[in-house]
Amino acid sequence: MTPSSAWRTLALTSVAVFVVSLDGTVLFVAFPAIRATFAHVSAAQLSWVLNAYNIVFGGLLVPAGRTPIASAASASSCSASASSAPPPRSAPWHPRPAC
Question: Which residues make Cβ contacts (< 8 Å) with residue 38, sequence separation at least 6?
Answer without folding.
Answer: 46
